[in-house]
């Protein structure tokens, strides 16, 4: 268990198996080896091991909860719900199981039941900071009016008061304050945070996002890495189930209109692969499918999901310095962390083979001019004119920019651009549709 806790998974697995050689049905070894197998991408094996442990100790709430976590992270929400309810039968005060139950109810679009579960959690554990934080996110994600955003502010304040190292609550608090138009308060939260942690890239970037400092040309590597390393464990859950995230499917559908029928013949780069949501969609087209991301935590999740021939941890613009390496480059909601797009699009053009396609998504900025805005979310919005001009300067052809909604924020759809462009020759005029 000590090896497991410090992520020395090879040693932990060897020792768990030694225990099981000595005592075949030792339930703790079965349980924790099951968790480890899931972490290593062997989720089906993990499920069977924990089920075997539960045959020995059927009233073990932690094992039921961890079995639920595997089902949840594999997208089997009904099975996860059943496990969490069983954990609560065995241990009615199991706060993690109740918290997880609320999350999967929310993910199944059963918001009233989820809200009731969050409220029950906080009645049972009023000093549970994570519970206050999750309820705050729920209120903001499902906000139907400003009062719900106000209520999220109270939850985030309480979470941070209970756990002063809980910086996610502090960040969420500032975003809610900004949405309410209480910009000065949001800025002050970040200024206080910067004063306490001057080397922390998160409050420095978010201070600029709230207008308290000059906006950088792009989000810094340290900011992006820290945000997504922290977010890796809950990324799929939040985006897919709570925010109706659709970018991977929409982008691959658009690519399908210009690519030949899927026959595993193309070299494809998933640029900003995150946890690997695009892999199963791109795999039918790919002879070789590579994912790259700045966050090691995200890449590890993508490795567990599988589907890639290779995965790399690297900054995107630098990674694209591979002339003529790819037939397709897809980037789902990664370029939202770049302000001016010219440099990264020029690198993508060079990395594509002649006739290769680039597909990416962005958040849309209103207005007709060439505009880029850093928003309170920490992401950039781009005007259509900026996207078009950057692609033209990078010598892309057949430029297609369409509008869609690829996610929700604060309960509302986020206006987005879905962009497709082709590398022609080394130069030439681009056409826009």
UniProtKB/TrEMBL annotation:
Family matches, as InterPro entries: Methyltransf_11, OGT, SAM-dependent_MTases_sf, TPR-like_helical_dom_sf, TPR_rpt
Domain Methyltransferase type as annotated: residue spans: 269-360
Lineage, broadest ranks: Bacteria, Pseudomonadati, Pseudomonadota, Gammaproteobacteria, Lysobacterales
Source species of the chain: Rhodanobacter humi
UniProt entry keywords in alphabetical sequence: TPR repeat
The protein's name in its UniProt record: Tetratricopeptide repeat protein
A Pfam cross-reference name: Methyltransf_11
TPR repeats mapped onto the chain: 61-94
């Amino acid at each position: 268990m000590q090896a497991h806790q410090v992520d020395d998974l090879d040693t932990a697995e060897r020792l768990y198996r030694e225990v099981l050689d000595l005592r075949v049905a030792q339930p703790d070894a079965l349980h924790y080896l099951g968790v480890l197998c899931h972490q290593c991408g062997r989720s089906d094996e993990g499920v069977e091991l924990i089920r075997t442990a539960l045959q020995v100790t059927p009233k073990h709430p932690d094992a039921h909860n961890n079995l639920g976590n595997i089902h949840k992270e594999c997208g089997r929400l009904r099975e996860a719900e059943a496990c969490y309810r069983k954990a609560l039968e065995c241990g009615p005060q199991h706060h993690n199981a109740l918290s997880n139950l609320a999350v999967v109810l929310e993910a199944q679009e059963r918001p009233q039941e989820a809200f009731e579960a969050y409220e029950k959690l906080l009645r049972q554990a009023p000093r549970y900071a994570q519970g206050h934080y999750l309820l705050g996110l729920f209120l903001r994600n499902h906000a139907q009016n400003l009062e719900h955003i106000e209520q999220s502010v109270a939850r985030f304040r309480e979470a941070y008061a209970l756990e002063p190292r809980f910086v996610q609550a502090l960040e969420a608090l500032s975003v809610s304050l900004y949405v309410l138009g209480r910009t000065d308060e949001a800025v002050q939260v970040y200024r206080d945070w910067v004063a306490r942690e001057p080397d922390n890239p998160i409050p420095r970037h978010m201070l600029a996002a709230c207008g308290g400092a000059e906006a950088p040309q792009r989000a810094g590597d340290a900011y992006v890495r820290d945000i997504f390393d922290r977010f890796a464990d809950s990324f799929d859950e939040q985006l897919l189930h709570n925010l109706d995230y659709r970018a991977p499917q929409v982008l691959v559908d658009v690519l399908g209109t210009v690519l030949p029928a899927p026959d595993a013949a193309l070299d494809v780069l998933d640029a900003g692969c995150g946890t690997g949501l695009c892999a199963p969609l791109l795999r039918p087209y790919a002879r070789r499918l590579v994912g790259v991301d700045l966050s090691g935590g995200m890449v590890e999740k993508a490795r567990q999901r599988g589907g890639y021939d290779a995965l790399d941890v690297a900054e995107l613009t630098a990674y694209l310095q591979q002339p003529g390496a790819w037939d397709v480059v897809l980037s789902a909601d990664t370029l939202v962390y770049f302000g001016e797009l010219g440099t990264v699009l020029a690198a993508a053009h060079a990395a594509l083979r002649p006739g290769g396609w680039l597909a990416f998504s962005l958040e849309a900025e209103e207005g007709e001019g060439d505009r880029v805005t850093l928003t309170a979310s920490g992401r950039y919005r781009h005007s259509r004119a900026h996207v078009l001009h950057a692609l033209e300067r990078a010598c892309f052809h057949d430029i297609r920019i369409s509008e869609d909604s690829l996610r929700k924020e604060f309960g509302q759809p986020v206006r987005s651009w879905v962009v497709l462009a082709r590398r022609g020759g080394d130069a030439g005029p681009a056409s826009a549709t």
